[in-house]
Structure formats: structure tokens, C-alpha cells
User: Fold this.
Amino acid sequence: MKNNSAGLPTKRQKSFLCSLLFGVVIVSAAFFIATAIIVVDHKQRFPGLQRLDSMQVTPVNLCENQCSPDGSEALPKGIVVKTSDLEMRPLWGPREKRKNPKSPMSLLAMAVGKKQKANVNEMIKKKNPKSPMSLLAMAVGKKQKANVNEMIKKFPLDDFVIMLFHYDGIVDDWKDLEWSSRAIHLSAVSQTKWFLHPDVVSEYAYIFLWDEDLGVQNFDAGRYVSIMRKEGLHISQPALDPEKSEVHHEMTTREKGSTVHRRIERMSRSKKHCYRNSTDPPCTGWVEMMAPVFSKEAWRCVWYMIQNDLIHAWGLDMQLGYCAQGNRTQYIGIVDSEYVVHYGLPTLGGSQNKTNSEPSSNEPSQEAVSKESNHIDIRTEVRKQSFNELETFKRRWRKAVQEDYCWVDPYSH
Ligand SMILES: *[C@@H]1O[C@H](CO)[C@@H](O)[C@H](O)[C@H]1NC(C)=O
Ligand SMILES: *[C@@H]1O[C@H](CO)[C@@H](O)[C@H](O)[C@H]1NC(C)=O
Ligand SMILES: *[C@@H]1O[C@H](CO)[C@@H](O)[C@H](O)[C@H]1NC(C)=O
Assistant:
């Protein structure tokens, strides 16, 4: 998706350049050593060689910052910290410890024979290091406090960092909740994207970007993460309980008895029909934006696709497949065994304040919905805005595709 033709090298090119550079350095070092040896013999006789010698000693131009993150070129490499995390550290004294602190990685080396395969398998399973933490990010308002509390209880705090964006600006009223002091509270809601920059959240294995109106009676975050890992999913969402939920797309409906489904074959409630041979979203390779979960690799890609000025992010869901780190029909799925209820409540903004924030929600029904007439206007406005943005997004996508001669659509047919 990146423009390969001009300007900055892409990541792959960059790392290729880095290895190339490394190779060149090795080769020139070897060459220098070789010449040095020869030169020692001949220096006396050919003093002119001395200058040639010193020219080869300094491969200055080879050190040109190919491997440094943008803007850090003026610093010595060793001091540059490329990522951050969201762990809170006290101003003095010891850090509050996680109950199961992230153990540093260790190396297990064993000489094995096939006969002991089963036993070795058991041993290695036990040595599994503690898995890295994941992140739950949610835009919340005080009205949904009770439900948000229930939701967060399903996320073990030893394995998850909780980040709340308070769209109504009320933060203090959450202090009484048990987990509140361990969550990160932000009230600059209109720019959630800032706080989820891939470099900031790269320490986390999975990023949950959830709406606040989900029922989690049949959901366990720990189990969910292990299913994603086992199934190799890079983008997913929990299935919706169809009896209690507001379902917008058939694809998200829970299939009883299944762990994960990656496609649907039946007729869709929307105009688009899905068959066994369907290869496009929303029949396969698709999740809705109300409860998406991204691997950190997928998130790094999706983040770049979020348009700063398109606040409802309509249309993004249809393009998620490009960020699936491989074939979208395989790496995107709906988790049936851990499922949720989508209440479709009037969240985000409520009745008093017209909201214009939150990229993670793309259904107008979740915006300010109210029976009172002046609030219906808000809903209509939001819907209109969302459709306009959808058109803008599609237009930008088409233009980007046209202009990038190096980009090939893996899904065109
Ligand atoms: C919402 O509206 C009320 C008054 O209607 C105002 O006091 C409050 O500051 C507003 N909140 C936000 C986040 O704009
Ligand atoms: C897919 O299957 C449907 C119904 O089984 C059929 O009508 C349609 O032509 C098929 N499409 C392709 C591209 O094979
Ligand atoms: C993705 O996988 C499906 C099913 O295996 C296959 O039909 C399709 O061609 C693949 N698409 C790409 C882009 O590899």
C-alpha cells in the first residue's frame, strides 16, 4: 500500500538497505584489513599509498543514518528508544508489581531424538514464557459506567492495559471503581488516534478497540486472546448473540458450536448476498468496527489507513483485509465461542452534547439517538456526515490506487 516509487524507502526496502549496508561494511572492513597488511609491506617503498590507505579507513558516507528512526539521526544509536509502553511508573519508590510480571525471555536448548517427541512436547509446553500484554481501548461516557465496569472485569489486569477515552469529559466519577487507578484515563477524545500510535502500543500483542455498549456475560478476554493466537487471526471480533443484539451484518452473527468462522454462505440481511464462492467482504475477510481486535502487526497497518479528518471512519471496515498480514479469508475471523451482546445503546455523546469524535464507531445508531425531536436532528446530521465521509474515503482510496503504480491489489479479480 505504500508508495514505492518515490521518496522514503518502505520498511522492507529500508531493512534490506540496512542489511546491504552491513554487508558493505563487512566487505570493506575485510578489504581494508587485507590492504592494510599489504600496505605494511609496501608503505616504505610507496609512500603514496598512505593516503589511499586513510581514504579507505573512513567509510563516512556509508554511515548515513539508513537505520535510524526519522528524526533521531543526530543521536548515537544506543540511546534511541524506539518504542514506548503505557505502564505507569511512580515518581519515586518501587514500582507496583504485576502479579505475574512479564518474565524476560529465556533460551531453552535441548538435544532431542524423535523417540522422545511426546515428552519433549510436554516439557516445552511448560516452559512457555508469560505472553505479552494486550491493550483494551474504549471511548466511554459516565452513563455507561455500570456496563463498562462489567466489561473491564472480563479483562484480567495482569494481562491487559486499559485505556479509557472519556468523551463526556467526566473522569473523576470513575475513581471509585476498583480497577480505576490502574487504567489510563484520557479526555482528549477527539484525537484518540494520537494515543494509539503503533510505536506507542507496539509492546502489546493485541489491541482491542471497543465500543462501550457490549454485553460480556459470555466473554473471557484471556481465552479470546489464546483463540486468536491459536487460529492465527490478525483481525477479529467476538460474534454477536443474535437474539439480544442489534445485528447489522449477518457475518457477525454467532454460529453455535463453532470456535471461529471466517465466512458466511447464506443470504445476507444487507443487499449483498453471500455464496460459497464469495471472496469479498462482508462475506469473508471482514469485521465490524464496534468490537475489532487487531494483532499489533495488523494495527500498525490499520492505523495508517485511519484518516484524521474522517471522524466516523466509514468504509474502513471494507479495507481491513489489506492489513490482514496475508490472505484476508484466512487471517480475519469472527470468534464464536467467546461472544458478546451488542446493545446498540445511544452512547457516545448522549443527549446534551453533539459529539464529533471517535473513529472506532461507525454506526449512526450508536451516535446520539433520542426520542426527543431536537436530538433526532443530531442523528440525521451524524448519518449524513457519515455517508459523506464514506464517499470521501472511497474517492481517496481510488485516487491512491491510481497514483501508486507500484501497488498491486491482491484481491482484484
Ligand atoms: C456538555 O454540555 C454541557 C451543557 O449542556 C456542558 O456543561 C458540558 O461541558 C458539555 N460537555 C462536553 C464534553 O462538551
Ligand atoms: C457463485 O455462486 C452463485 C450461486 O451458487 C452463482 O450464481 C455465481 O455465478 C457464482 N459466482 C462465481 C464467480 O462463480
Ligand atoms: C485467498 O484464499 C482463498 C481461499 O484459499 C483463495 O481462493 C484466494 O485466491 C486467496 N487470495 C489471495 C489474494 O491469495
